[in-house]
Amino acid sequence: MNQNELHTYFQQFSFWNHMTSKEQDMLLSNIRTLHYTEGTAVQSGERQCLGTLFILKGVLRVYLLSSQGKEATLYRLREGDICTLSASCMLSAITFDVQIDSETDCELLLLPAPVFSELMKNNVYLESFIYKLTAEHFSDVISGIERTFFLTLPQRIAAFLLDESAETGSDTLSLTKENLARSIGSAREAVSRALKQLVTEECIEVGRGTIHIKNKSRLYQMLNHS
Fold first, then answer.
1. Spatial separation of the C-alpha atoms in residues 62 and 53, rounded to whole Å
2. Residue 208 — φ and ψ, nearest 5°?
């Protein structure tokens, strides 16, 4: 992106018109473009806090990683989203580390942490925007926790597939059993058994690296069945 394109891009955000010309110039002059291939670690516990990520293309997965290697997906971010937890070291209310992977090839804009911190400190509108966005992301986290505790594994899979279908606008999802298991925080073997059940009930078809939803109504019925 050139400077004019960047200026047009950031005009869509509510904080932009509340920034001084100096602050706007500081943001635009420090923005970096990043490219990640599918399956690449964007941020891990061993890496320095990046800053704020603006997703231009692709899908990022934000998750927690235990010392035993278990993963718990917090949420996904897609084109048009902003990743604030990549700058968690600059947010005083965030006291844990997150991992971020690129689930697809990704194109991102990065506002480095030191610049992000300086702008946040001096502009209450940007600070409010970032914390509001972070709070919205945590609603997704709570939703995931509720599913883990209150839904059966087939129900969790149904909910995930329906959400992904709504996000992508397609009933055929590029998704492996391993990715699905990692996304919902379950074991691959257990997910495989649950998928076989859904196939038997003619809710879905499982292909090589894909899952096709055949009967959405049936999946919704599963979610409403206690």
1. 12
2. -80, 100
Triad 89, 95, 98: Cα angle to 5°: 70
Give the end-to-end CA distance of the chain in Å, rounded to a whole number. 50
Contacts of 99 (CB under 8 A, 6+ apart): 41, 43, 44, 45, 62, 63, 64, 65, 71
The closest alpha carbon to 113, from 60, 47, 59, belongs to 47
The reported pTM is 0.75
Asked whether the beta carbons of 15 and 84 are under 8 A apart, the reply is no
Helix axes 188-200, 177-184, angle to 10 degrees: 110
- pLDDT tens track for 49-79: 788 999 999 999 888 777 777 777 888 899 9
Q: Give me the mean pLDDT over the 110-116 stretch.
A: 91
Residue 107, strand partner residues: 35, 57
* 112-122 mean pLDDT: 90
